Amino acid sequence: MKKCIILANGTPPPKEIFQYLQSVGYQSLICADGGANAAKRMNLIPGWIIGDQDSIMPRVYQFYMNKCKIIKISGQNDTDVEKCLKYACRNRFIEALLLGATGDRLDHSFCNIGIVLKFFNKIKIKIIHQKSILCAYTGKVILRTVPGETISIYGIDQKTKFESFGLLYPLKCTSLAFGIKESTSNVALGSEVILNIKYGRGLVVREFEKLRKYGLIQST
User: Fold this and answer.
1) In angstroms, rounded to a whole number, what is the distance separating the alpha carbons of residues 211 and 198?
2) Any residues with CB less than 8 A from the CB of 174 and at least 6 apart, and which?
3) Residue-range definition of the domain harbouring residue 123
4) 169 and 104: one domain?
5) At residue 77, does pLDDT exceed 90?
6) Could you tell me if 91 and 200 lie in one domain?
C-alpha cells in the first residue's frame, strides 16, 4: 500500500518525526512548493516537489534540481497542497500524511483542514501538527485507543449524527455541527472506542505523541 508524506509551506515538525513516519510506512516525501525550503533545512531529499514555484527559494530549487523530480503546475484554482494530492491520487497512493499544513496563517490552516474533507472520497488524509493528529471518518469506526487518551470530535452540519461507545462523555445520535456543538477533550475509557457516524463525515483529533508511543499511528 503506497503512503506518502506531503510537506506544505507551514510550520514543519522536527526531522525525527519524518524519520519515525518513514519507519512506519510513509516512505515517500512530496514537497508542496515552499515545503521544499523546510526539507532542505532538515537535509531531506523528497521524491517530488510540486507547485507553481512561487514559494521555493532559488537556491533550494538549484539544490534539488538534479536530486528529485520537480513538477511546475501553474494556475490558482488549486493550492499547492491540492496539486500534490492530485498527483498522489493519479499515482495510486492510498494515504497522505499532511505536515506543515498549519502555521502562522489561519486561512491556510483552515483551508488545509477543509482539504481533508474535499479529498475524502479520493485519498485518506491525516494532518499532524505539534501535539495533534486529525483524520476524517464516516460510518462505523473502531479506534484502538489508550485509556485516558484525549479525543475530540467535530461535525460539519446538523444532519450528521454521532454515536459513541467507550468515551467518558458518550454521544447518542448527537449532532456536532460546526459553530453549534462539539465534543472537545472527550476521553477514551479503554483500549477501544467505537464511533458510528451517520449521514455525513466527522473530524477526529487525537494525541499524536500517545499514538506514537504506543504504536497506534497506523490505526487512526
Assistant:
1) 26
2) 161, 162, 163, 181, 183
3) 3-130
4) no
5) no
6) no
| Positive or negative: CA dihedral 100, 82, 208, 150 | positive
99 has pLDDT over 90: yes
Beta bridge partners of 143: 193
Taking Cα atoms as reference points, which of 47, 50, 40 lies closest to residue 75?
A: 50
- Give the integer Cα–Cα distance in Å for 115 and 128: 14
Question: Is 110 found in the same domain as 13?
Answer: yes
**Phi then psi dihedrals of residue 44, to 5 deg:** -100, 140
Of the residues 130, 163, 186, which one is the last residue of a structural domain? 130
The H-or-E segment that residue 113 falls in is: helix 106-118
- Phi–psi pair at 34, nearest 5 degrees: -65, -10
pLDDT at 32: 97
220: confidence class by pLDDT, cuts 50, 70, 90: confident
Q: pLDDT tier at 8 (50, 70, 90 boundaries)?
A: very high
Whether 103 and 89 share a structural domain: yes
Entry pTM: 0.94
Domain end point (choices 89, 115, 130): 130
Whole-Å CA distances, 153 to 26, 37, 184: 25, 33, 6
76 confidence band (pLDDT: 50, 70, 90) = confident
